[in-house]
Amino acid sequence: MKLQCPVCATKCVTFKEYNVHLLRTVHIRAMKERSDELKKSLAAMRVEQREKQKEEDENDLTSMSTKTHFCAICKLSYSQEKSTHQASELHKVSICI
Fold this sequence. Notes:
97 residues; mainly alpha; two-stranded antiparallel sheet; two-stranded antiparallel ribbon
């Protein structure tokens, strides 16, 4: 059997060997680095989403309400209609995360 770690690219022949690899410091360090990269990327994406949502809220003339809503999926506050927000590209991108 050929097993390959998608993070470290280490190749193992047996499940036992693969399990040993998963417990090694090299793999744990690589997983932490990957996790940190993903967290940074997600944080940057969230900032961009918030900026775009703010622009959309300011430009949305149909929203006469000053009441804000919170989308648990996007982690964003918005003042648009719920249906408008859910149809937005921002919301669709967040679903994929």
